[in-house]
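Design review, sub-item: ligand-bound model
Attendees: FS, YL, KQ
YL presented the inputs for the magnesium ion complex:
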Amino acid sequence: MENLRTVRGVHDLLPDELYKHQIVIKSGLEISNKYNYSQIEIPIFEFSEVFTKPLGNSSDIVTKENYVFRDRSEDELMLRPEGTSGVVRAFLNAGLVQDVPQRFSYYGPMFRYERPQKGRLRQFKQLGIECLGLSSAMADIEVISLGQEFLDQLNILDKINLKINTLGDFDSRKIYRDALISYFSDYKSKLSEDSIKRLSINPLRILDSKSDEDLKIVENAPSILEFLNFDSKTRFENICKGLDHLNIKYTIDKNLVRGLDYYCHTAFEFTTNELGSQGTVLAGGRYDGLSKMLGGPDVPGVGWAAGVERLALMIESKFINKIEVVLMGQSESFNYLLLPILKKLTQNGIKSEIIYTGNMSKKFKRANKLKASYAIILGEEEVGKKVLKFKDLTSGKEELLKLSEVLLKVTND
Ligand code: ATP
Ligand code: MG
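KQ shared the predicted structure:
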C-alpha cells in the first residue's frame, strides 16, 4: 500500500514524542499559574486582519508564511501564526481594559509556511504568556524571570543563554531607523534581495536577517543603544538592574530585534547551541502599540512565546512506556475471567494490560517489551484454588495470592 503522506512540515506525534511535549506544556502552565498567569484558549483561525493589522506588511509571517483561505461566506481567514495578537484581541473583546493588569498563558498549534527543518515546522506548538496593562519595567523583568524559571524547571538552563536588547520608544527608533537606512544604503549591492526590500519598509528587520552575507554587513551597523533618548535608556538600565538583582545572567545583543512589527523597548531571546540554526527556544518582548493597531485603546503589554518542539528536543525524557501489571491466561478461554481483574486494577490506579493472544512464551516476550513490573497468570490450577499467580518480573519470584493481596502489594510498591 502506498502510504498517505502528511503535508510537508506537519507531523504525527506518536506517544513517546507527545509525552515530551506534554512535559514541556505542563511545566510551562504550572509555573505560569504560580505567577498568577491564567490559561486562556483562543481560536486557531481568525479574520486575517487580526494578524495583518498588527504584524504589518513587512513581517515574514504575514508576507510569506501565512496560511490564508476564504471560507464559504467569502470571509478571509488565517490560521494563526502566533498567539499574541489573538490574546490581545480576546482581551479587548472581553472588555477587560478597565480591569488591568491581566496575566494570561496559552498554548496550542501555530501555522507558518516555512522551509521545514529540524525544529522548524509548518504546524508547531507555542506556549506563551502575556502581561497586559503594565507599562512599568518591572513587568518586563517579571516575564523574563518567569521564562527563565520555566527553562529551569525543564532542567535545561545550563544549555541556555539569555540575550536582551531594547528597541527604544517610537522617537528613539525613528532616529535609529534613519541611521540604519543611511548605513545599509552604502552596501545596497551586497544585501540580499529580502533585505533590500526591508531597507525601505522596515530596516530594523535587516538586523534579524538569516543570510550570512547580510550578517557580515550587520556586524558593523550602528547600535540602537547610541540612539536611545533618556527615558528609553533609563528604562533599559532598570531592566538590566532588575535581572542583576535576580541573578539572571544575560548578554546585551545590540542586533537583537523581534521579527514582528509591533515590538518596542525590551526584546529578549533564550537561545541554545544544541539545535543548530533553530537555536531560539523562547522569545519575547514589549508590544505597547499592539492594542491600538487592533483598534483598541492604548494598552501596554509584554510577553513571550516558547517553541514546544524545540524544548521537547532538549529535554531528557525519563519516560518509557512502562506499565505495572500485565495479565495473561494459560489459554484464551481464561481471558474473560481476566477482564473483571483488569477493571479492579485500573480502578485502583494501576496501569495494566491483558495480553490476549499468543503462547505463554510470546506473552512473556510482550510483557518484557512493555517493561511491566508484575504479571498475573491465570490457569486451571489458579481457578481451582480461587487464587492468582503473581509473578515479580524483576526477581522472577512467583506466589499464589488473592486479588486483594495483589492490590495491596502493587499499590504499596
Ligand atoms: P525564528 O527566528 O526561529 O524563525 P521567530 O522569530 O519567527 O523564530 P517567534 O515568532 O518569536 O519566532 O516565535 C517564538 C518561538 O516559537 C521561537 O523562538 C521558536 O522557538 C518557535 N517557533 C517559531 N517558528 C517556528 C517553527 N516554524 N517551527 C517550530 N518552532 C517555531
Ligand atoms: Mg520565523
